[in-house]
Design brief:
elongated, about 10% strand
């Protein structure tokens, strides 16, 4: 097998493994795979039914009835995921699709007028156009830490839109998660570089499709704050600055731990990520007070919508 396809299969396997480490994502993705298979079985069966009833003309009519209503209603149906809890919307759509498929099968079995089956096909198209954007909006809320998603999105935007050389560093040595977001191994990583177990070049992972480099956290250590405040950490960041246009550090949550206070002097700017409805006002005020005002770039409010 050529090297490129082999690497792509390996990356895909790691991505699937990362998804299945997150129980919430695992349930959604397995559900999604099942609904996709069911949907295409329904489409194939519908095409055979239409051809049997009216030949190629009927097949074309079914395609039009299935696609046209969904195109017209898609902008309105997509709003459901913003106005109502997305988990409930996804469940409701899947239940409705199950009843729609069962109704179409029953109508065909009982020799009901073809128009009944075709009408149910239109309903199926409407439900499908609502399901996809709602599920896409749901996935970010299932990531274990919202700040890891913010760091990932920020890096991808810089790399792809501005053609910058970007490196994301997972400095959350106590509870690393960034490697799961990108579907890569967690080691060797930053902690291994800081204790001299690995070279920086060995720990960096370049993702060609996303055009970013990742420095995962690496193996867990007993004194992460000491490592982050070490001279080796400063030298590591200096080496990264010489190779990349932008370095994004995914830091641990601001709180009683000293990690954020140690990392802040090492960076140029700080972007604070706040989780709506979960982070308390005093915690936000304490976090802002602990950051040099000249370095605070702004605040990102995550998960502001229902779901």
């Amino acid at each position: 097998m050529p090297q490129a396809p082999r690497d792509q299969l390996r990356e895909s396997a790691r991505a699937f493994a990362a998804v299945f480490h997150n129980p919430a994502l695992r349930r959604v993705e397995v559900s999604w795979a099942g609904t996709v298979c069911t949907y295409w079985i329904f489409i194939v069966a519908l095409g055979l039914y239409a051809y049997d009833r009216g030949g190629a003309t009927a097949v074309g009519l079914v395609g039009l009835l299935r696609v046209l209503p969904s195109v017209v209603a898609a902008p309105f149906g997509a709003v459901l995921g913003d106005r109502y809890p997305r988990e409930r919307v996804v469940v409701a759509i899947n239940v409705a699709r199950s009843f729609t498929i069962a109704g179409a099968a029953a109508a065909a079995f009982l020799s009901a007028p073809a128009g009944v089956v075709y009408a149910l096909a239109s309903v199926m198209g409407l439900l499908q156009s609502t399901f996809r954007p709602t599920q896409s909006a749901l996935l970010p809320s299932l990531v274990r830490r919202p700040e890891e998603l913010t760091a990932a999105n920020l890096a991808l935007t810089m790399a792809q839109d501005f053609q910058r050389r970007i490196c994301i560093v997972d400095a959350n040595l106590r509870n690393p998660q960034l490697h799961r977001t990108f579907g890569i191994e967690n080691g060797p990583g930053l902690s291994d570089v800081l204790i001299g177990r690995a070279q920086l070049d060995e720990a960096l992972v370049y993702l060609e499709d996303q055009q970013v480099s990742i420095l995962p956290a690496g193996g867990t250590q007993s004194h992460p704050a000491e490592l982050l405040g070490s001279t080796t950490m400063r030298r590591t960041l200096e080496a990264l600055r010489s190779s990349f246009d932008r370095i994004i550090i995914d830091a641990p949550p601001a709180g009683p731990l000293a990690d954020v206070g140690i990392i802040t002097p090492l960076v140029d700017t700080v972007l604070l990520v706040v989780r709506a409805g979960l982070t308390s006002r005093p915690s936000i005020q304490d976090a802002v007070a602990s950051i040099d005002e000249a370095k605070l770039l702004g605040v990102v409010l995550n998960e502001t919508m229902n779901g």
